[in-house]
Amino acid sequence: MRWFVRGDVDGFFGLALDNLVQLLVIDALCRHALGFPESLVRGTILPGAALSVLVGNLYYAWQAMQLARKTGRADVTALPFGINTVSLFAFVFLVMLPAKLAAQAAGAADPARVAWQAGLVACLASGLIELGGAFVAERIRRATPRAALLSTLAGIALGFISLGFLLRAFARPVVGFATLGVVLVTYFGRVRFRGRIPGGLVAVVLGTFLAWATGLAPVGAAPQSAASFCPPTSAVGALLEALRGGHLATYLSVILPMGLFTLVGSLQNVESAEAAGDAYPTRPSLMVNGLSTVLAALLGSCFPTTLYIGHPGWKALGARAGYSVLNGIFVAAVALTGTLSWIAWAVPIDAGLAIVVWIGVVISAQAFQVVRKEHAPAVVMGILPGIAAWGVLMAKAGLRAAGVGSPGGPPLTAGVLDAFLASDVWIRGGFALDQGFIFTAMILAAGTAMIIDGRFRTAAGWFATGAALSALGLVHSWRLTPQDAVMDLRPAWPFVIGYGFVAVLLLVTPWVTEADAGEHG
Questions:
Q1: What is the DSSP letter of 520?
Q2: Beta pairing class for 478-480 and 485-487
Q3: Which of 42, 248, 409, 428 ranks highest by number of CB atoms within 10 Å?
Q4: Which distant-in-sequence residues (6+ apart) come within 8 Å of 495 by Cβ?
Q5: CB neighbours of 288 closer than 8 A, spacing ≥ 6?
């Protein structure tokens, strides 16, 4: 098999465009949502992310060539690899933004640095989970129902990815609808433009043209400096300082599930490649995935890497090993040379938002497509906490927009929560659900799946896990500050009792119930 074939060009455009959108999203969220200085984003975070992506892509291209030589085949396709979309949004909105708000409330001198350090810890821990999990991946996959893993991802994808960007599309419908139409037609309609032009490329080019035509672009002032080399720098000192700051314990309820999701998702992608004809060894594939994420954290990036879905699609396009090499080089080039600042100036995020919406939709749809149809209710149960957490985030943003909890504004008090209740909005329940909602989603989905299967004792174990996590304060435990509702690592006794009651009920269910042969049986 040759290193480069014609199909690698097609595969490169699709994969590189996906990674470019991730870099643009990182740049926009870090600078605007988190308030990071440009020097931190473009001088540290992006170079660190770029090198981690480059190393992983080169390995998986080499791995594909090794498999081709071993099997004597010329049609082996490398595993697609890049920045982890779901973790990107989860770490921004569930780790770094809360860390920044807490630091502001505590009067920290540099809240942005605190948020960055929290992200570094989350990224490092996620990579270590992936690395260690490579040795026990199969056992984890067997212990957790697929409905629990995928529905939790679906809840995050719907709320924090699709809905947020869908609102942006409806706020700017000329660009949003045009690009969304292109993505829907090419990605869901299973067609492509003549000349084999990737639909994602057409969407971004069209979106950029319409953005300039309607005044959405350029974005801000043109970069003052010309493109220049920005080498990766070590962030080990900042990482050690962050580990001493207690961020790991504070955000463990986000970090642990996200690491496990990435691990299991990567395992499923290896299985998907094998089903398409390319049988890669599981352990080294997952280990390199984890090592790339660890490397990202050591170099100052807060964003894990992962094996992407879609190997069969790239294989059908004729991509082999070269598309992975080209993707790694492209990502490194735009991030290490400062070119991304010019791209971000000329190409607003609106031009690529349809692709991000599509990613969220695909992740959500997969939760229903690959589980048994009997488990569909369990999937819905697992989706609800993620959507609720996004709704709480919107409520908090609304309060801050009204000045509540902001410097110089009225504090967030119990009276404000009572005002929500007067409108039949149970915001206290939302705050409780928001804390550790990823664990909650897994528990509800897994417990429901086991109940559907009639495995009541196993279901009891899942709800007992909820009681234990509540007793540790990792879920549902919160307290009110003048600025925000934040995690409080103390026992949430009402939830310990609630989960415990359900666990006991499930244990005695075989003795106090009988089979229902009616329509609900």
A1: T
A2: antiparallel
A3: 42
A4: 432, 466, 467, 470, 475, 476
A5: 56, 59, 60
Q: How many residues make up the chain in this entry?
A: 521
Q: Which tokens belong to 224? A: 């003052």
SS3 145: coil
Dist CA 345 CA 217 (whole Å): 7
Spatial separation of the C-alpha atoms in residues 423 and 291, rounded to whole Å: 49
- The per-residue b/e assignment along 170-187, b for 16 or more CB within 10 angstroms, e otherwise, is eebeebbebbbebbbbbb
Which token pair is 491?
């026992």
Q: Which of 25, 18, 23 is nearest to 350 (CA)?
A: 25
Q: Which residue has the tokens 């804390």?
A: 435
> Which residues are CB-neighbours of 513 under 8 A, at least 6 positions away?
none
Structure-block tokens of residue 324: 């992975």
Both structure tokens of 19: 């990674």
Q: Average pLDDT by consecutive 10-residue portion of the chain (521 residues)?
A: 84 78 87 90 93 96 96 93 81 86 84 93 93 82 76 81 87 94 87 81 90 89 74 92 83 76 76 82 92 96 86 78 94 89 84 79 81 93 93 89 83 92 94 88 94 96 95 89 80 97 97 74 46
3-state secondary structure of 403: coil
Q: Identify the CA nearest to 340 among candidates 14, 19, 119, 55.
A: 19
Count how many Cα atoms sit within 13 Å of the Cα of residue 276 in the half-sphere of its side chain.
Answer: 24
